[in-house]
Amino acid sequence: MKFKLLATSLAVSLALAGCAATSQSTQQAPTSVEAQANNKVFAQDYVLEELDNGLRVMVVKTDYPDVVSLQIPVSVGSRNEVEPGRTGFAHFFEHMMFKGSEKFPQDVYADILKNSGVDNRAYTTNDYTNYHLNFSKEHLDKVLEIKADIFQNLSYSESQFRTEALTVKGEYLKNNASPIRKLLSAVRKEAFDKHTYKHTTMGFFEDIEAMPDQMEYGQIFFERFYKPEYVSIVIVGDVDPQKTMEMVKKHWGGWQRGNYVADIPVEPKQQQARYVHEHYDGLPGHWLLVSYKGAAWEPEKKDRAALDLISQLYFSENSELYQELVVDKQIASQMFTYNAETKDPSLLHVFVKVNEESDLAVVRDAINRTYATARTELVDSDKLAALKSNLKYSFANDLDSSQAIASMLAQYMHFERDPEVINTLYATSDSVTAEDIRDVANRYFVDSGRTTVTMSDLPEVAGFDKEVALDELVAELSEPKQRHFSVLDNTNASPLVDVNLLFYTGAAADPQGKKGVAALTAAMIANGGSQSKSYKEIQKALYPIAGSFDYQIDKEMLSLRGRVHKDNAAQWYALVSEQLLNPGFREDDFKRLKKELIDNIKAGLKASNDEELGKEVLYHKLYQGHPYESYNLGDLSDLEALTLDDVKAFYRSQLTQAKLNVGITGALDEQLKARMLSDLAQLPKGEEARLTIPDAPALTGRHATIIEKSAKSTAVSFGFPIDTIRSSKDWTALWLVRSYFGEHRNSNAYLFQRIRQVRGMNYGDYAYIEYFPRGMFQTKPDANLGRSEQIFQVWLRPLRSNNDAHFATRVAQFELDKLIKEGMTEGDFEATRNFLSNFVPQMVASQDRQLGYALDSQFYNTDEFVTYVRDQLASLSVEDVNRVIRENLQSDNIHYVFVTGDAADMKARLVNQTESPMHYNAEKPQALIDEDKQIANYKLAIPAANIEVMNAAAVFK
After folding, report:
1. E strands within 280-357?
2. How far apart are CA 99 and CA 162, in angstroms?
3. Which Pfam families match (predicted)?
4. Please, what is the Cα angle at 793 between 790 and 796, to 5 degrees?
5. CA distance 366 to 858
6. Secondary structure of the chain: what % helix, strand, coil (to 5)?
7. Alpha carbon distance 171, 205 (integer Å)
8. Phi, psi of 171 (to 5 degrees)
9. What is the C-alpha separation between 846 and 842, in angstroms, rounded?
10. What is the pLDDT of residue 42?
11. pLDDT, tens digit, for every residue of 864-899?
């Protein structure tokens, strides 16, 4: 009897797609070793013993109380089905193993397990079948007894055999409805000539149909592979390892060893690229599968590990290609990669679903370009390290139960039946370099190793035969300047590095007839590819390092901002610097991102966000004929007409050094920082540092815009331009007034109390003196929304009806008028000042917000934000505040915006100054009832000629 006690760790493990092992583990005399992680990824005590009959047993004691997970991987899968006409039996016996034995017939053992609360399941793969059970530890001995008897004495009748064969046929037909399974079946059948990977675990359909008459062969198959030398037992949970081992020996020790070894055919080298089209009646959309022959499972060699890494780097959701095809251009609606866990060389797959037939070739070519890139580029070493780290720790996060640990072990044990393969795999993967990635790509990603499948409702795909060879793609495929931009260098010891490239330009710089070009340019830089890499490639590269790069667009500010861990900063910068300095300006990126912006306006704003729509229409109406007039993302007709040349022109004229303000914080390496600043000097020098913004148009009288759309409630916003901005001497006082009157998402604010709390009319009511978009999604305003012009605004969140909206608007106007007339009390002033003095640090509580607000302070030429606000607050008096109210707030010149489902009714109410009575479902104080009667007839006094009704479809047209 051979036995070993090893120190290993389940704390973390490398989650590479398709990890397994094939070499024999060595047997050792009983040994006790203390658990030490060292450089292992698997460092928890376990007992591993091989019985005399060849059965291997692994026991891991965990601290999860009571629960035990039993996994029984059997090293038999579709790979072992070598006889022609006899496929699908590994999967079939996964079913039959639930039929029971003479001692424990199906109904008997099923009743035992049910009453014991046992979760009893199984699955079959290419190389193994796994039976997994989870239960309370007091049932361990009985479960082991039952399973041992079934494994050794499986019993079933011919009727049961035939019936189960029909069930398997039904399962095949069910599975065959899945496009993914059909694609896998088709590609394996086409790609393999000799090897048993030619068929899936279900087997060929004609073999399944013949299965009911194969009972005699079924018995032979079972007796060949259900032998102890093919079986491992993994027990993880709240157990005593030695006592558990004795239980296993008691029930499984007498099982007799077999002697059968399947002769698995060797697949000959593929000589040329292959392609097949699958016709699928009624299939929506079109599917593409590009598959390359991969490596055998040899964990001590780099090939398999490198292919796993390539799969993630270039084709995962974080890849540049994914971002290009799915996110930016939206050519594809789905894309994913799969590298199967197999003992012998199998296939590395990339699946893509598109809506248009013509995009199949586009996507295929993009995938080939990506493989060509993998063959020619050296992946950034920091990015590669980040991926390895991400995979390792992501996997560790999943090992949060005895069942999760046991399931992971079962996936490895069936290969070498030795968990040390996990450490081997990790060590091999950890040693893979960027050069290894490129070398492996050049060995495996060749035209002769490729098999492509298309699938759709069409009999064939037009024009798909024109494919550029990888070799052709591969064949197709540095002096500092003086700086003229501002640098805010806040580098510190934080391991997180934030970079904010803030340009003093934005939607206010959009030329007439090209509204939206600023937003589209920013999107093309942050969410498009560079000249050397597609967006998909960039995203793929950013994923392992958890790096980010995105944009924010406003009237006078365009912010390109990113974050990365200091260890990966060089890799991150290599990617994003190319996006800014050498943007790809690809037509596909352009079309995808333009479509995205248009959809944002149509579906994101106009169709589904009444509150933001009302606020944006208010700005639009207050700034007619002004650079602020258009929505930040543009007008729909202008966006539709924009060309890629428009974007390039805006990029050249507006993204200049003169307009650039660089913000850096975190532990950015000094050499990398110097390189970054040198590189940014490549941008055009430019002359204009800031946009010239005129005063807001004069607003005379009261006006209203009513937006009609399909809506069950009515959203309200109203306001007027103000001269006070953050750099003004009275800004902090007015900011205090705003907080008292309607602090955003704060239940202590006055409007909130009067409309929401006392009357229960809506979700909230707020006031602003600075632009605050996305207010329904966040509690604190974003940085980098600096403006030379601002408005005072009241936002009433949707009301239940037009009557309620009319009443709530009257309440807000009534309270505003009272505030203007009476001012704030000493008590309210002191309470609000105390709140803001304590609250303001929360607005800059994160590193990136500190950087953003610091850049805003440069824009406004003020001190650091918290200091600026606190110093001003400390010097204020209630008399100062009430003077600021009188000088800044007024009621004569206001614009109201209502978003409603019945515009005619809302207009009639405003024109006729219709009474808007308030009704409650609970008793209210008489003082409130009396006030309501006064407010129900409070005059908004909007002249009929000043009331405009618009259909939502016409807004930002």
Report:
1. 286-293, 332-339, 347-354
2. 13
3. Peptidase_M16 (PF00675), Peptidase_M16_C (PF05193)
4. 155
5. 43
6. 45, 15, 35
7. 11
8. -65, -40
9. 8
10. 65
11. 999 999 999 999 999 999 999 999 999 999 999 999
How many CA within 13 A on the CB side of residue 306? 26
369: its two tokens: 């370009």
Q: What is the pTM of this model?
A: 0.54
Buried b (16+ CB within 10 A) or exposed e, 229-248: bbbbbbbbbbbebeebbebb
Tell me the C-alpha distance between 499 and 573, whole Å: 10
Please name the residue that has the structure tokens 């809302």. Answer: 906
Phi first, then psi: give them for residue 730, nearest 5 degrees: -100, 10
Contact 789, 721 (CB under 8 A): yes
Where, residue-wise, is CATH 3.30.830.10 in the chain?
486-680, 702-954
Q: CA nearest 935: which of 804, 770, 775?
A: 804
Question: What CATH class does 486-680 carry?
Answer: alpha beta
CA distance 445 to 465: 19
In this model, does residue 356 exceed pLDDT 50? yes
324 by DSSP, 3-state: which? helix
DSSP 923: -
Instruction: Give me the phi and psi of 298, to 5 degrees please.
Output: -130, 90
Q: How far apart are CA 552 and CA 506, in angstroms?
A: 9
* pLDDT tens per residue across span 303-344: 999 999 999 999 999 899 999 899 888 999 999 999 987 999
Q: What are phi and psi of 546, to 5 degrees?
A: 50, 40
- CA 881 – CA 732 distance, rounded (Å): 9
Distance of CA 188 to the CA centre of its chain: 31
Q: Which two tokens stand for residue 758?
A: 């006392």
CATH 3.30.830.10: does it fit domain 702-954? yes
For residue 293, give both structure tokens. Answer: 């022959």
Q: Would you say 455 and 183 are in contact if contact means Cβ atoms under 8 Å apart?
A: yes
Tell me the backbone φ, ψ of residue 152, rounded to 5 degrees.
-90, -25
How far apart are the C-alpha atoms of 121 and 71, rounded to whole Å? 10
Phi, psi of 599 (to 5 degrees): -65, -35
Report whether 361 contacts 462 (CB < 8 A).
no
Mean pLDDT of 265-287: 94
Taken as a whole, the chain contains a residue count of: 957
Residue pair 674/917 in contact (Cβ under 8 Å)? The answer is no
2 phi/psi in degrees, rounded to 5: -110, 145
CA distance 56 to 421: 15
What is the token pair recorded at 119?
């979760």
Per-residue model confidence as pLDDT tens digits over 436-492: 999 999 999 999 999 999 999 999 998 887 777 888 888 877 334 578 999 999 999
- Judged on CB neighbours under 10 Å (0-12, 13-18, 19+), 204 is buried
Spatial contact of 506 and 555, defined as CB atoms under 8 Å apart = yes
Q: Report the largest interatomic distance among the alpha carbons of the chain, rounded to a whole angstrom.
A: 100
What is the rounded CA–CA span in Å between residue 738 and residue 766?
A: 8
Q: Name the token pair of 677.
A: 């600043």
